[in-house]
Amino acid sequence: MHTVACSILHAGALVLQQQFEKRYPHYCHTCNGWGTLPELYDPSPDGIGLSPGFLVMHEPCHACEGSEHIPTCSLCGQILASDGTRLCTCPLNLGYPETPPCECWEHML
To answer: Are the C-beta atoms of residues 20 and 96 closer than 8 Å to each other?
Structure first.
């Protein structure tokens, strides 16, 4: 059972997701419209753990903007210019809205 605050957060996220899907029906489902995919990278040399954690490197999504054949906008699906720039007016810092984490179980303890 969700708390009231959690239910409100999830309902708001659902509305944002529905608006995003209506505005960008052809968004890339591989990268969720971001144009890149996060890749975890451990900077420590092999066999040595210098510090805990990973770096996150963002690689171009090969299903849309990073495609070698026909690169397309990750949001609207329009083909990119030959130099890889967008011909559309889609924002660069937008992707599928994430669902907030549910931490209702903490209240049950």
So the answer is: yes
The pTM for the full model equals 0.76
Q: How many domains does the chain divide into?
A: 1
Q: What is the pLDDT of residues 17-36, one digit of tens each?
A: 999 999 999 999 999 999 99
Q: Is residue 17 part of a domain?
A: yes
Query: DSSP assignment of 33-96, as one string?
Result: TSSEEEEEE--SPTT---SSS-EEEEEEPTTTTT-SSS-B-TTT-PBPPTTS--SS---SS--P
Whole domain around residue 63: which residue ranges?
4-44+51-101
Given CA atoms 90, 55, 42, 84 in this order, what sign does their dihedral have? positive
